[in-house]
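Per reviewer request, we include the raw input and output of the structure prediction for the construct analysed in the revised manuscript.
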Amino acid sequence: MSFQIDFLGLVYFHHVPNGRWVLLPDGRTPEEGIAPHFASFFLERAKVVDDSQWWRHCPDRKALTDVCLREYPICEPSTITISGLEAPAEHGCRLWNRSAIKSLRENKLVHLRRDCDKDIRVNPDTAETIAKLFVGCGEIATFVMAGGATVTRLRVPHGDLGGGVQIVATTSSGKTMELDVVEETEIILSNTSDLVPTDEEYELQLRNRANFVTRNRSGVSPRRESAATDGYDDQHSHFRIYANLGTPPHPEKLKVPHDPPPDLPPFLSSHPYLLLLDGEQVPGADCGNTCCG
């Protein structure tokens, strides 16, 4: 049995000897002119076993309910643990008999220090994050979305632990929140601006679906077009939120990527949330994953 996690938006992979720290910079209150960013899990309702111990889920917008999805926000800065992501034990205890991290094209991610700001120093203990997650095993693969954002998929063999997958968020005050999902789940962990259309926008899309592409020959909806404009205005780029990982933050120093790294395969998924975004609300090149240590 296994499960996978797709990391969407502003997500930084920090290399350490025994794995990766996955850091989501806190973008809830960004600089003026930059859209707030929110960290959330997007899960198919049928895959959720118990959500009673999590923060209250976001209001059920019609765009999500029509495809049986639910958004579970991370409401406070938290350390996330997900069962099955632990690093293998040194002496091969049967319970931890899983492979270490394997990497496929991860080196093609934008390197925050090498490519964007040679002075930035990222420390997982002090970085201003809305969420951080340690990954000690699995296979990491990097892709590119239609809008230009890089996205990373982590596939995790769940070994012989049995049962489902447990997601736990522990806040700085020690409060814990928990989600339980079935195995073989595709989990979306997103850190983007609000990409889900309002009920009014969604109804308009449905009514005008037949001529929607005709009126937007670029494949970019008005909602996506606004994001693209932000993406190429460096002063108001979503990418500047990454500066929150440095101590102290210096957003003015960050060189904003305008294009995705070359030679990345397209990101393909049957997850309803990604199908909902495809070609309409997908993030641009300045709102993709980055790395490294």
